[in-house]
């Protein structure tokens, strides 16, 4: 369907161009511009690495009036220890609370006066600080980003204030069942390992993290070899390289402290996926919330896009959204017709060296949970044996649309560049993504399912009214069920 729409758009563009050419030949005053010019069409990602290992990556769009610039750091909650879990997120909160050069008020006024937007976030593997501003304000923006990354005051009073803020944030996260279930899923699948810890950290850590912990984290992880300065929009590549030379050339290329180097080395060990489960039964809750996953693929894995196509074949469905049961996903039709669930969402989550591939199920029908899980895993088994070209093409069209249509602004493009450069060292252009996904066949999907799904160990995280969820071994046996 997406391909048909693309062909139709191209035909319309060609007809429009012909019409404009005809008008030009008849008119005495030629049209200076007949068609709107796509901002990112044909743009390429340029990258440069400074002598200290600091990387600059940009996608220049000459017609864009604004730019998003940011620093992507290859360190998140995975770069912490049990004692310091929560430090990366804590640092993100303190970044905007003042530096050696600027007070918090000066920092906020400077951004406000240029009409800019400054933000940050922390994930399990990345910390990101980025800003959106007019092209003319890019030098000032890079100055601010460099300042908050290298000169944050980390004042004791600010640390104490942020403790309460983060604890309130944690309370809000604990009310979001999907977040809770996925945190538990990571905790059981990668138990006892850095990837299994939460991003915010446990309450006792939030209450006890000290300034020395924050300084150690910066020395260990905020090094040039783990940072990428990204620009997307109207900022030319060479301008950003010059700004990086000015503001980031003094960063150490690796941790200077021996202890910090040991911690950094330990983080590079590949986590082991452990078939296991976590159950939190609460019959006062209206629903059962269950996530089931096998070990997935990393960002760099050659199966990365095949995993996404396979996930799209299983699909997503939500009764509350009034979604039709006939979405092309066999599971959505079956679940809807038999009233087995309120919703389900398949997922393929990737990290630098591993991942989780699975499904998240929500049901208010406690007596049907066994059937829901059984027929879901039966669908997984089918993927190893019987995938049609039609459902593969549908999944590919949906995947291409979701990836390419999401690149709808400079911030989204910067995010795409930063994440790819930090995790894989290079960025696949939208054209390359379209080509790679387009080449995937139903045979590739079945081959992926045979290797990654068939008779593989699973991790289960279940919260709520889950009495009907049968024993782990019974669920595990459904991973190698022959279809009748």
TrEMBL record:
Subcellular location: Mitochondrion
Domain Peptidase M16 C-terminal: 208-399
Reactions mediated catalytically: Release of N-terminal transit peptides from precursor proteins imported into the mitochondrion, typically with Arg in position P2
Source superkingdom: Eukaryota
PROSITE patterns from the UniProt entry: INSULINASE
UniProt KW keywords: Hydrolase, Metal-binding, Metalloprotease, Mitochondrion, Protease, Transit peptide, Zinc
Domain Peptidase M16 N-terminal, first and last residues per copy: 56-203
GO molecular function, one term: metalloendopeptidase activity
Protein name: mitochondrial processing peptidase
